Amino acid sequence: MRTARLTWHGAFHHVMNRGLNKQKIFSNKKLKEKYIKLMAEKSTEFDIKVFAYCIMDNHFHIALENSSGNLSQFMRSLNGHFGNYYRKLTNSKGYVFEDRFKSTLIQDESYLVTLLVYILQNPVRSFYVENAFEYPWSSACEYFNNMNESFIEKCLVEEFFISRNNFMNIVNNEKTKILGEQIIGNSRYLGDKMIHSNLDEISDYKNIMLPMGTKFSEVLVNLVHKFETNYYIKLSSINLKVEKGKKTRRLFLVFLRENGFTYNDISKINIFSELNVNSLRVLYHREKKAKSLLTKKEPSP
């Protein structure tokens, strides 16, 4: 049985896959260009932000943001359409790719920079070229130029590196041989130990999470952990169809408000997504009133 991937709306990922039995499924210009063209089409169709890519002879790397929550659908469609094209072109049958695509969760933008450099250096590490910008089937040459037709999300990358000279210098001279990805349960992760320690819990309650690529969501991770510890409950296991589950959600609402979250913030969290700001405000005051009545001391006789 396949396990669900650790992801959410707005999560950064390193995605890669290779040909079955390491077969050179991108062995020529036509095949590489077809995959890039499909990537452009599918990223638009599924609203996925692509920051960088590199297509090698037998595998590919993509840095992206799961901006719509449709990462799996995007990759299934992309690889599926390429597989059909490849089989037809080569008059072959059977699987084209080794397995499902591999996906590594990236903690935040600082690690995304490391990933970008790693991806663009692939042809240099494999001795295809001496300069990453000489390789025509990566996104290396798409930044810091006036090309408006690119499907790559260039703005964020250009903000990271500030100037073309700085970008070229880092990509060509930074030595990033391995990424240092970690295996946590059934998921891959690139980040530091502070967030690493919470990942097992994140995988359990990711259905209530916001994108993790922001300070705001890291705060939410810690608050969920604190709430679950205080109330001896797993938010991922509550049933919102029964009163007990709804009560737990109301307590969590009060807890978040008391820790500085606005109603607008809370409305973006998946567990509250069916409630608008006004409904949240009503529930909050109702729960606060009920809590006040429960804790109010009886007058002395």
Question: Can you characterise this structure?
Answer:
By secondary structure, the chain is an alpha+beta fold. It folds into two domains: 12-173, Transposase IS200-like (Alpha-Beta Plaits); 208-295, no CATH class. The chain has twelve helices and six strands. Strands 2-3-1-4-6-5 form a six-stranded mixed β-sheet, with helices on both faces. Helix 10 crosses helix 12 (277-295). The longest helix has 20 residues, at 71-90. The chain is elongated and about 70 Å long. Residues 194-198, 200-205 and 211-215 have low confidence and may be disordered.
Key words describing this protein structure:
301 residues, alpha+beta, Alpha-Beta Plaits, 12 helices, 6 strands, 11% strand, elongated
Q: Outline of this structure?
A:
This protein is of the alpha+beta class and 301 residues long. It has helices at 29-45, 71-90, 109-120, 122-125, 154-161, 164-173, 193-196, 199-205, 215-231, 243-258, 263-267, 277-295, and strands at 12-18, 49-55, 59-65, 102-106, 182-184, 187-190.
